[in-house]
Structure formats: C-alpha cells, structure tokens
Design goal:
The chain has 238 residues and is α+β, with helices and mostly antiparallel strands. The chain is built from six helices and nine strands, in the order E-E-E-E-H-H-H-E-H-E-E-H-E-E-H. The chain has a single domain, classed as Ribosomal Protein S5, domain 2 (2-Layer Sandwich), CATH 3.30.230.70. It is globular and about 55 Å long.
Amino acid sequence: MARIDGRNNNELRPVTITAGFVDFAEGSVLIQCGGTKVLCCASVEAGAPKYVPQGTGWVTAEYSMLPRANRERSRRDISRLKLSSRSAEIQRLIGRSLRAAVDLAALGERTVTVDCDVLQGDGGTRTASITGGFVALALACRKLLEQGTMTKDPIRHYVAAVSAGIVQDELLLDLCYSEDSHAMVDLNCVMDDGGGLIELQGTGEGRSFTIEEQRKLVSLCSEGIRSLIEKQKEILGD
C-alpha cells in the first residue's frame, strides 16, 4: 500500500526538536514529528514525595492536549473537574519511561516534573512526548550541573519511543492519525540507547496478532528509536 505521505513502511516522519523553546523552564523543547507538535517543559522543585526513599529524587510527568490540538475542539480536563482516563494513562506511561533513564539517588531530594502539552495531534502524541520529554529532562539536569547544585549527572541512558502498527496487513512505522485510525494492530514501544525495552503497549484493535508479528513490529520500532536517539544526541551535543 502507498502511505498517505509517501514514506517507506520503515520510515519515520520528519522529526524536529527545538531546544530552549521556553525561557523559564529548567529544560524545554518543542518536538515535531510530522504533523504532531508537543511542547515539553521540565521543572525542578526541591523535595521529593513522601513515598520516595530518603535521599533520592523523583521524576514525574503531566500530559494534556490543547482544545484545538485535534480536528475538532475538545473540552479541557479542568472543565470536567477531573483528568480524563486517557490523559492519566498517558502521563503515567511518560513518567515511567523517563524514570527509567534516571539514577534517582544521584538526582537527590528533588522532583522533576515534565509537562507535555500537545499543540497539534496527528498520531503518536505519547511517543513524541517521551522522546521530547527526555531531552527536556536531560537539559534540566545539565542546568543543575552547571549551577553546581548537583555534582553527578543522574541521566543513565537515553530513552525514546515510537509507534508501529499493521494497516491493511502491512507493517508500518510511526503511524500518523489517518493510519492509526485504520490500524488492525497498534503498538507503542519505549527503548533505551542500549536497545533494551522499557515498555510495550500492543493492542489488537481490528484483529489479534501473532508473536512473530509482534517481534517484527518491535524490530521496526527499534530501527526508528535508534534514529530518534541519534537526533536527541545531536540536540544535546553528545
């Protein structure tokens, strides 16, 4: 099948990461993956939650979509007086993924919150949030090191994420909205720079899928994540 934007099946959408997009956050980026645009801001606060072991820090995330991030206006969560179940699930995923990159003991008794606000959604908003959120997190930690308030870089390894799916029985990398909305199988993959898996979210939406198909989808994601991590390293100068 021909993809709507002419990409090969194993090809990422064009990715742009703009660092320092917001002046006041300790770390910030605007990440654009095709038509998806997410603003990621990392904020550092003294102290850690009570449930965290003494002497260690915490990394968490919040996720939201602006009302006109999609083709039709959506209501803000605050208008419902509660977080939508989708936003809650996605921000937990982002938080878990970013914590996997950090030595919380080296972070010390401080909390880093990564806010991911979707300015425009065209598929893959959660994976773009993780990829961009990691860069914002790394920039925030770098600022603490430069200020001398932290002596050891807590970043243990890079983390990035991408989606893949099966559309009309073809395996595709980095689904845009039109592909995702017709996908028989949808899979989100989070990995580190050593090729280790951090999280998989796979769903048979139109049909079930085999273990072999899952392996092929993960392999496809692995190729894309390697490219994304190279992009992250370019931005961070590593």
